[in-house]
Amino acid sequence: MKVTPMQQSLISHFGEMGSRWGLNRTLGQMYALIVLTEAPLNADQISDALLISRSNVSMGLKELKSWNLIRLHHIPGDRKEYFSAPQDIWEIARTLIIERRKRELDPTLTTFRNALLEKPSNSADEYTQQRVQDMHDLMEMVTIWSTELQNMSSEKLSTLLKLGSGISKIIDAKEKFLKK
């Protein structure tokens, strides 16, 4: 498989960003290649295009599958497995939100809930619990909000984001109205 200069630039960038998003460089590059390629790819094609070992590709594909970011395809007459990314970018975003929430927010919320169930033994623990309560409440709001976003259609999500600062103006107007 031949990677174009444009694709190569984007693949390199995704590799760099992958490490900032909690993935390794190779995983970021693999996902970029899969997202930016129209036809489903098999492991050999990914290995050849990115000049990485076949075993590294296999491990990366398992990781991408565990994140639910790729889809498996079978081509009649071909025993190889082929992989693609969802065509809808919003679906990818929703999947990332779900998976990051499972891996990051949910365990933290559990830890916070456990801390809040403990009886504070001194003023330092009381203060700690108040701070944990504040963080817990914020994370709960984010979790509820992300769940609502996940259930919206791609069109509604796009419209919501296009509203941008308009939402702030609506809230400001509501606050002014309520003060009267």
Automatic annotation (TrEMBL):
Residues 21-80 form the HTH marR-type domain. Keywords: DNA-binding, Transcription, Transcription regulation. InterPro entries: HTH-GbsR_regulator (IPR052362), HTH_MarR-typ (IPR000835), MJ1563 (IPR026282), WH-like_DNA-bd_sf (IPR036388), WH_DNA-bd_sf (IPR036390). Pfam families: MarR_2 (PF12802). It comes from the Bacteria. Belongs to the GbsR family. This is HTH-type transcriptional regulator. It comes from Thalassotalea profundi. The lineage of its organism: Bacteria, Pseudomonadati, Pseudomonadota, Gammaproteobacteria, Alteromonadales.
